[in-house]
Write a structure and sequence with these properties.
Layout lengths: L2 H22 L8 H13 L5 H13 L10
Helix pairs in contact: 1-2, 2-3
Length: 73
């Protein structure tokens, strides 16, 4: 497994965890700072992946800087 694969799996774990937390609280998804940093790192690497995962990545990047990050998470 490559370092890029590890980054992707970590990103996907955090992405789905953020969505699960929002669903539990019947709230809008707010991504954690870690999810944002992983998305930025993957975007900078320009690593290719499936379209489904790229959509998830771009969803997070579109939310970047649209609300204050909760650094207590």
């Amino acid at each position: 497994m490559s370092t890029n694969d590890v980054l992707w799996f970590a990103f996907l774990k955090m992405y789905h965890e953020d969505h699960a937390n929002a669903a539990m609280h019947c709230a809008t998804v707010r991504y954690s700072p870690l999810t944002f940093r992983l998305a930025e790192a993957l975007d900078a690497l320009e690593v290719q992946h499936s379209n489904e995962v790229l959509i998830e990545l771009h969803t997070v990047l579109l939310d970047l800087h649209t609300y204050a990050e909760d650094h207590g998470r």
